[in-house]
Amino acid sequence: IDSSKQEILKLPSPTISPDKDQITDITTSIDKTKYLVNDNTHIQFFKNPKFGPYLIEYLQQKISGVKIKIEQSSSINDELFSSFNYILYLSGSNQDIESTYDEINNLFQTVKIKIYKSLRVRTWLRNPTAVSIIQAIMDNENNLFSVCQSDGKYNDILKIFYFNNEKFNYIQNIDNIIQSYIRKKIITLPSIVDKNMIEKSKKNTKHDTQSGYSTKYTEQYQNKLKEMIENYNEENNMISIILNEKIYNKVRKQQSIHIFGSIKLVNEFIQNFQNLADKDTFTVFKFNPITSIQMEYLTNIGSKDLKVIEKEYQKENAKIRIRYDEFYAPENLKNDIELSMNTLLSSLESITFECMPLYYDIADKEILHLKNIAHKNRCGCELILKKNLKLYRIPKAIETSSTINFVSRSLIKQSELFCSSPVVSQQAKSSNGSIEVLIGDIAVQKADVLIIPLVSYGLKQSLIERAGNIIRQEQQVDKTEKDKNSTPFFIETTASNLTYKIVLFSNWSPLKAAMNDDNLVEHIRKFISKSIKYVIMKNEQSDIKIESIAFAVPDSCKNENILAEEMIHETKQQIELMKSPLKISFIILPDQQTLYQQFLTAIQKVQSNDDVYAVFSCPMSTITVNLISSNNENLTKCKEKIMNHMKRSMVKIKLDEFKDWNQYMINVFYKYCYDRCVLLKLDDDKRIRLIGPINNVYEAKHKYLLTNALIQEKIHIQQLIIKIPRSRSIIQPQRTESISTSACYNIMLSYCQEDSTISHHLGDRLIDEGFSVWIDLIGSNDSFLQINKSECIILCISENYIENKFSQNTVEYMKQMGKHIILVKVQNCILSDWLQQLIPNEIYFQMFGSENYFDLQYDKLLLKIVSTQYSSS
């Protein structure tokens, strides 16, 4: 009989000896008043207490005059499996006795055997009590008498002996019992973790797993379960229940209940077990979907409301774990707790509003402050941040004879650093479209079409790897160019993971063949013109809307000047000729600085007078605030405080225009603002507007005022030098000469050996400004000589300088010679008495600390030096 498979523990069945051959008494004469039952199998029938009386009744119905008595006697043969036999004593007439004797003999001759060895039965027999339980189930049926035994090498075959007599049983009845009246079930309990937490069972789904949730057992439940199993095993011989425990590690163990027996008893136990589990176990239930803001409110603000719900069910030890979106409770309390939670959530009110736009990463920093404000006002808070990039213009400076000379190496370096950053691009506008040059990663630019010529830095292979699965497209345009050797020839592909819509690979290269400058110019123009025409035709013939192109600039051209000028010039010509509104970008890699400078020069040549110098991109963020609370007044108050906080944290101020500023100064000031998350915008009247965190904005304003004052002082000095020429002794600086042509002013830096690094750093900055600087180690042989040659002396003050034995005499000599002395602290120290007496009430500049602070103090120092120079003039 085949049956469904079940996984059960592999336990050995009790050993049952195989059947013995029937032993027959051989006597010369048979005493038919006694019928000896000494066959082992036949003896087993009499173990059923109902068999003897039923057999007597059956025989007396056949032969009414006979009397029958059944007795148990010791075995004559010690080799018999059983230690006893059964004897049926017959009394009555000889004919009745003989007929009864023959009837008994004929009945036992009808005994047959049925073998069951399906997988289902084999799994039953792994239970050591399976045979006895099957026997008990058979014996429980009326008029059904059988003997059950196990057989086979592993005792995994079931043999059932039965009477082939309709008065005793039918084989169909036995088959029906095997098929439908016996059940094996395994209930896998959730794993016990740390003796408290029970994780969801991951056993085979064919096993019963109580609940799809994690469970927490009570000690009372464990005791009741063991007691129930013991009672079933003691009171019922038709069922076997085994509680197994498997230990996985020190903190985790798995329990399972193996049930085998009468289907009625098995089902009854499962139901009783379920009732016990529902009443005495905690199941971990997940709440219905709770929004993130509701979760945040209940976790931080509404914990008292949750305690009220817990208190209502404290007798049942229910517990709410809102951080994990779950609660512990008996099964019968699940709906009640969920209803209480839904009632609490439905009582909450909400409000949504947007804050003022924020620039750079200010919004990221403000999120924590806004959440704190919400919590203090008893509100849950969810903040949604939306970001996009906005472009702002950098104005082109109006160069004059006065401003062009105010350039230092440091200024040029910072300007170039800012202009070569990915956020800045040089632009030139035509009547229709625009051209821009920028440094950055070609793979992440925002454009519709990417055009890649043959390049030597492996860009093509790198882009293919980053793009992923690109697919070559059928050429839809320019079908006259079928020769792949023609230049340029385009292969069109999808962009896959890149930010573009289309990628065009071209066979064009500025090193395609040896050529003179004229041929190179024609070669470049042909590539640009055919590229733009291809894209325009593609736009007309397909459903893809194309508004922008990005060119990857090759780095393998011998004449980069021609490459840059012709690419920019031809692009502008094609835009105007085709009357196309295309935005075309030339993307240069960060390590192509020389090529980048060539492109900057080229694009500046095609810029109109109205054009800005460049544009920079600034991330702008908008915060959408969702508030939730059980009190509407809290919502109103919280919104007001958040809006006030945003107004206080962000400030807008206006400054004058960049009058007399050269381009380097403008670029560096933009960099200064950018580094401090201050947005610099130009109004229509060219006045400057600064927007950002209040401290940073006023710091930028201070920088602007210092730079403005410095420019005016230098202009005044130049004007005086022109009007009143004066001779100056020029001291050659120890460092590289300045590239500036401004008037030379002699400065001496006096320092001690321990402060060499910061002192030389300061000296380098002054040399970059155009000053002739003597950097003098205190106590050197020619210190007094250089003092005589210097008009302004900067003392680099530190504890080491003050304690130096040469310091006091040197400073006294400076005072005697009437030199302008400026105090610069290169270390946080207290001025000595002798220094304060020699230089009383003198303002000092603190040059220690961060680089940003150094820059600001340097501007103040520079203004002091220039003002001193102006006074001297």
From TrEMBL:
Pfam families: TIR_2. InterPro entries: Macro_dom-like, TIR_dom, Toll_tir_struct_dom_sf. Signal peptide: none annotated. It comes from the Eukaryota. Residues 747-860 form the TIR domain. One of its GO terms (biological process) is signal transduction. This is TIR domain-containing protein. It comes from Rotaria sordida. The lineage of its organism: Eukaryota, Metazoa, Spiralia, Gnathifera, Rotifera.
